[in-house]
Amino acid sequence: MSTNDTDDEVRTDGSGGGIVAPDDETPTWSERKQRSQGLSRLTYEYFERSRREDQDLRQQSDYVERDVLAFPAWPHEMIRNLALTSFFVGMILFLAATLPPEMPNPANSAVTPAIILPDWYLYWSFGLLKLGPLNPDLSILGGQKLMADRTYGVLANVVVVGFVAIVPFINKGSARRPVEQPFWAAVGMSGVIFSLTIAALSIKNLIPMDSHLLFDLTFLVPIVSATITYAVLKTMREGYMFDLNRRYYRLRPPK
Amino acid sequence: MSLERKDEHDHKGWMESRELSPLESIYLTTLIWLDKRLRVVDYLEILEDLYYKVNMQMPKSHTEQYNLDNKFWYWYPLYALGSFSTIAYIVAAISGALLGFYYAPAAAAADGSPTVAYDSVMLIMGQLNLGYFLRSVHRWAAQVMVAAVFLHMLRVYFTGAYKEPRELNWLIGIILISLTLVFGYTGYLLPWSQLSFWAGQIGVEMSLSIPLIGEWVAQLMFGGFTLSQATLQRMYILHVFFLPFITTALIAVHIGIVWMQGIAEPH
Q1: Which residue of B has its CA nearest to A185?
Q2: Which residues form the Cytochrome b/b6 N-terminal region profile domain (chain B) (predicted)?
Q3: Do B137 and A96 touch (CB under 8 A)?
Q4: Which of B171, B198, B211 sits opposite A151 (nearest CB)?
Q5: In which band, very low, low, confident or very high, does the pLDDT at A1 lie, cut at 50, 70 and 90?
Q6: Which of A109-113, A122-126, B88-92 is predicted most confidently?
Q7: Quick check: B184 and B96 in contact, CB under 8 A?
Q8: Is 50 exceeded by the pLDDT of residue B57?
Q9: DSSP per residue over B161-227, as a string?
Q10: Between chains, do A188 and B157 touch, taking CB under 8 Å as contact?
Q11: Which residues pair with A63 in a beta bridge?
C-alpha cells in the first residue's frame, strides 16, 4: 500500500470512487426506457401502443389459437419444397444440356456485325432507345430537337421504370383481383404487350414487316389489347363479384 | 478461507447435483463457458421469444377463412415464381463460382484476335471436363432467373400484391430486377466476343447520352469512352464482387419482408 492511495481515487480495477452506481440505484431497462427523452421516448411509447394493438387483434374472433398450423413445415412442407426445387434445378440442367450456348468470334472493332443485339431480356430497353421518331422537334427552336435522340431513348427508359416504381403510390385501396379493377388490369396488360411489341421493334431488321407499320403497331397493339382487357373484365365483373360476395355473405352473415 | 473466487450462482454445484449424461454436461459446460463471455442467454431468450411469436398464434389466412381455394387455385403455381428465381440465382452462383476458377478477365483488345479472356472461355468450353456443360448451366440459370423475375413481377402486379403495406417491397423488387438485368449485361460482356464487344459499345453510348453526368457514368462503369481492358476488368468486378453482395443482401431483405408481412392473397 502506497501512502498517496486515497479512498475517492478511481482504481484500475473499478473499485473506489463513485463512478459506478450501487446496484440498488441502477435503473432497470424498463425504467431507463420510460425515463428517456425525445425520440427514444416516442419509440418506446409507440412500441407499447402497437403491442396493445397486436393484443387486441389477436383477441378478435377471426384469430384462432392453433396447436398445429395448417400444413406442417417438417416433413411435409420440406419434402414438397425439395421436390419442387429438384424439379426446377433439373429443368435448368436439362435446358443446359440440350441447348448449349455458342461462342461468336473474338471482339473486333473493325467489323460491325450485321445485327447488334443484347440478350433477349434487354430488348425492351433497346427498343426504347429507338424511339427517335417520337422525339418532338419544336418550331420555336426552328425545327430543332430539344434533346438528342439518344438522350430521348435513355429518358424513355427512366420514365418507364419510374412509372412502374410509383404504381403502388397511385393505385391504392384493398382491391386485389383484376376483375375488381378492370382499369388497372388493362394498364398492366398494355404494359405487358408494349414490352413485347417494343422488343419486336428493337429487332425490326429481323422481322419481315414494313418498319413504319411495325412502329405504328408497337403503340396500337397495346392500346387495343388494353381496351379488350377492360371490356372483358368489365363484363365479367358483375357476375364474378356477385359470386364472391355471396360466398362471403354465407360464411359470415352480417349481424 | 479459500482465495479462489466463489462462483456466485454455483453452476458447477448445480450441474453436479443433477445426473447429467455426458452429452448434456458437455453442452451445459460449453453454454456456460460461452455465456460467461458473451451473454448468449440474452440472445437465446430473444430467439425463444421470436419462435413463439412466429409459431403460437397465426391468423387464419384469407383463403382458409373464406374457403376460397376454388376461386383462385389457378394463381397458385404463379406464387412459386419468386422462389424459382431465388433457386435459379443459387444455381447461377454455384456454377459461376466454378467458372471463376478458370476464367481470366485479361488482355481485352478489339482487333479480332482471341484475347486471354476469350481463350479462357474457349478452354472452359473445349478442354475442361464438363466445362461446356458448366457454362451452359450458368447461362441458362441466368436466363431462367430473368424470366422468372419478370413473371414474378407480373404476378405481383395482377394480384395487387404491391398494395398498402407492401410498397417498400415493390420498390426493392424493382431495384432487384434492375440488378438482375445488370448482372446479365455484365456477364454478357465477359467472354469478350463480337456480341460482347458491340453490346458494350451500346452501353458506353447509352451512358454517354445521359444528360449532365453521362461522361462521369461512362468512366465509372466502363473505365473510359472506348472499350478497353479497363472495361472488361470493371465488368468482371461488378459481376463477381459488387453485384453478388448487393443482390444477395437485397434478396435476403426482400424475402425477410415477405416473411414478416405474409403472402398477399387476392380477396
Answers
A1: B158
A2: 30-267
A3: yes
A4: B211
A5: very low
A6: B88-92
A7: no
A8: no
A9: TTSGGGHHHHHHHHHHHHHHHHHHHHHHHTT-BHHHHHHHHHHHHHHHTSTTTHHHHHHHHHSSSS-
A10: yes
A11: B59
Which residues contact residue A158 at a Cβ distance below 8 angstroms, ignoring those fewer than 6 apart?
none
Report CB contact under 8 Å: B162, A167. Answer: yes
Chain B nearest CA to A176, separation (Å)? 4
Positive or negative torsion for Cα B186, B190, B191, B194: positive
Q: Is B206's CB within 8 Å of A154's CB?
A: yes
Q: Which residues pair with A108 in a beta bridge?
A: B111
- Give the Cα separation of B186 and B200 in Å (integer): 9
DSSP at A77: I
Tell me the chain A residues in contact with residue B87 when contact means C-beta distances shorter than 8 Å. Answer: 85, 88-89
C-alpha cell at B32: 456456460
pLDDT digits (tens, 9 = 90+) for A77-116: 778 888 989 999 999 999 999 999 988 888 888 888 877 7
Residues forming a β-bridge with A200:
none
Amino acid (one-letter) located at B37: R
Alpha carbon distance A249, A210 (integer Å): 56
Q: Grid coordinates representing A110?
A: 473493325
Angle B77-B79-B81 from CA coordinates, rounded to 5°: 85
**Predicted TM-score (pTM) of this structure:** 0.77
Containing B20, the helix (H) or strand (E) segment is: none
Partner-chain residue, chosen from B87, B188, B192, that has the shortest CB–CB distance to A106:
B192
Domain assignments of chain A as residue spans, ordered by start: 118-251
Whose cell is 387495343? That residue is: A224
Which candidate in B143, B146, B153, B221 is best for mutational testing of the A interface (most A CBs within 10 A)? B143
Cell of B224: 473510359
